[in-house]
Amino acid sequence: MPEIQARIQGAVPVHAKLDPVLPQSYEPLIRASGIEKAWNEYFIRVYSPDKSVLVLPVEGEMSRSSYWNWGNEFLMRQLNAAAADSEIKAAVLRFNTPGGTADSTPAFAQAVANFRKVKPIVAQTGYCYSAGYFVASQCNEIIVEDQAAGGVGSIGTLLIRENYAEWLEAQKIEMEIMRAKGSEDKALVNWIEKLPEEARAQLQASLDACQREFVGFVKRGRAGKIKSDEVFTGKTYNASEAISMGLADAKGDLITAVKRVLALAA
Fold it and tell me: What CA–CA distance (Å, rounded) separates 53 from 261?
């Protein structure tokens, strides 16, 4: 019993919104089928109106191993398990996210694309921006709630850098970073020293590469649907605009999405 409970508690990090501990009633299922099956059964019970459709919540800021929400690696694991589960006909990713890190987002998007090859998967969202849209774009369809406060898009990449070098100088505070011999390129991007031009160029190259990757995935996932390259500048769109630009397919709530993905699975 303690070992099983440890597996339940260790499945995802502790966070505020969702209970990270499966109810005790799931322990027999963990013994019989494993932790992935148990968590998918939990998500179906909590979120899905149909027991044959897995609904995975993608909420809040996305990252590889999020502290406050379900991390990308955890959601990828659950999706991969659902692809091999004969009792699950299809899946819905329920997005309510401003986006997140570039790290692990391509892997999550690829997991969705792989699932799509086996079973239909639909994205449903109130708002789904940046990294969230990166992943959602790989679904068969995207359904957006018809509301003023929400939408999709923000297909763009940025880095926010803080530097306090001038402030430290004005305050007459001297801070120095000392590097070992041979480590002259160590941590050139920091908040103390002015940014060298070569480091700035490297950051820009990395950002541009991430953006090309982002756009490439969206073009692949929404092939034949995107109406204009205007959508790749980082703009956001409400439900009606998103549909007209080819970023979404229909308006609707979670029930609408579940009905649609079951129709695709028929």
Answer: 8
